[in-house]
User: Fold this.
Amino acid sequence: MEEAWRGTAWEAMCQNLTDNTMRAGAFQAIEVAHSHLTRAADVCGSYRRELPYQPPGPSDALPHLPDAMEHLGTAISCARQLSASHDGSAHVFSLCTARIGLQDSALLPWQRWAGHHADAADHAATALQRLQSAWSHGAAGSDAVFVMLKMAPFWMSGAGLAGLPGPHAAHQLLDRAGMTIVPSQGFPLWDAWGHAAEQLLRRAADDLDMARAALDHMRRAVIAQFYDACWMLQRRVVS
Assistant:
């Protein structure tokens, strides 16, 4: 019976280590989303700095946004599955090693394993948090781009025109994200929303950088956890 518990514990840790499909899926989706968000932010920034009377073309940023949001959704889904799989594998391993007394007879490696498990779980939570933040910033940035598209034909300054929100609304949007408008020589209405779109999309890309780093830290912690498990499972319980 002890060998059966050991075998189940070993399978759980191998599954945890080899969750490459979800991990690779998360990294790939993050890379693609980051590329689209950065490109859209660059477009918003370049059009915002255009000279007056040269109509901008924010529609060039638009094709990047649905792809960015789609891949953000994929990354969030992969990160959730990866976190759930890690927690499930750890639960099985903990149960099996407790049944055969390894947590007592191999106390030091067990403590190391538990520490690395906690580290991996924390990094997974951070990655998911940053991905969700990227989604929020990306969605808000997309809304700002749509406002730019609506006002593009008018290319005017001042308060809202034809039901469009004025610069104050753009300031409020950035305030909620902890950012501020940096004035330029452009028209106030266009400038405010262009700056909001650019900054929000760049903040989303920054969130993705942090999510990618957290997932990499998680991967390292999972590897360390696996070696701790190997050391534990090689030991024999002395009655």
